[in-house]
Amino acid sequence: MTDFSQFAEPHSEEDRLVRGIDLARLPRHIAVIMDGNGRWARERSLPRVAGHRSGINAVRETVEMCARLGVEVLTLYAFSQENWKRPRAEVTTLMSLLREYVRKELGTLLENNIRFRVIGHLGDLPEAAQRELGRAMKQTADKDGLQFNIALSYGGRTEIVDACRALLAEGADPDRLTTELFAEKLYTAGQPDPDLLIRTSGELRVSNFLLWQIAYAEIWVTDTLWPDFRRRHLFQAILDYQSRERRYGGLNRGEQQDPVVVRN
Fold it and tell me: Is 258 among the catalytic positions?
C-alpha cells in the first residue's frame, strides 16, 4: 500500500490531488519552462533578483517531489543562450545563485539517489560555476534514481545543430541516418523524450526548449508564476496528463475507421 504521507499532509488539498494520481502511469520525463521570476518580483516592488532567489524554493520542491513519486527524468530550463543578453549584474547574480543552490543541495541530491546533469553549453558559464556544477555531476554520477537535468546556456536549435555537426564529423552516411541515430547525438541521448511539458506564468510558447524531444509531449500551462509553483501544481499537471489519451497520430480507442463499402 502506498504511503501518501510522503507526498503531502494527510487530508490536505495536496493529499486529495496526489491520491488521484495513478502512480503506475506517471510521465517518464517531465520538462519545465520556469517562467515568471521577474514578474513575481515586480508585482511585489522587489528587485528581479528576489524573484530568482524565491524561485529556488520551487526548484527544490519540484525536484524532491519528482524523486519521491518515481519520475525517471526531470529537466528544468534555467538559463537560455538568449539570457546572456540580460544586464550583466543580473547574469552575475544568477550565476551566483546557481552555485549557491548546487552547493547547498548536493547533500540532498545524494541522499535522494538523484543523478544531476547539465545540458547546454557548460563552457559558456563562469569558471566558478563550471567547477561547482562539475563537482555535483561527478559526485552523483553513480546514482540511479531521478535523472535531474538543468538546462544552462541552452538553445534547442543549437542542440540540433550540434547533433548535425557530430554526425558530419563522424562521416555519417545520409542514407543510413534515422531519427534514432540522430537522437543519440542530442544532449539527452539515452533518456526518454518528455511526456509532459509544463510552462509557468501563462505564456503560450516553447521558447526554443527541447525542440526535437517535445515532438509528442503533452503541454500543460499554468498562470502561476514560477516562485509560487508548488507540489499541488505538479500534481495538477500530472492529473491532467493522465486524463489525456496519447494517440501519436493514431485514433482514439473508441474511434473506428469508416467501414469499407464493397459495391458489386
Answer: no
The pTM assigned to this predicted structure is 0.93
Whose grid coordinates read 489525456? 244
Handedness of CA 54, 70, 206, 187 (dihedral sign): positive
Active-site entry in 35, 37, 149, 195? 35
Q: Which helix (H) or strand (E) holds 151?
A: strand 147-154
Is 113 a residue of the active site? Answer: no
CATH architecture of 27-155+194-243: 3-Layer(aba) Sandwich (3.40)
From 83, 124, 208, 240, the catalytic residue: 83
Tens of pLDDT along 53-73?
Answer: 999 999 999 999 999 999 999
**Structural domain boundaries of the chain?**
27-155+194-243
pLDDT in tens, 129-150: 999 999 999 999 999 999 999 9
**∠ at Cα 15 (10, 21), nearest 5°?**
140
**Distance in angstroms (rounded) separating the CA atoms of residues 238 and 221:** 12
Nearest Cα residue to 26 out of 66, 57, 71, 64: 71
DSSP conformation letters of 44-77: TT--HHHHHHHHHHHHHHHHHHHHHHT-SEEEEE
Residue linked to cell 502512480: 23
Percent of the chain as helix, strand, coil, to the nearest 5: 50, 15, 40
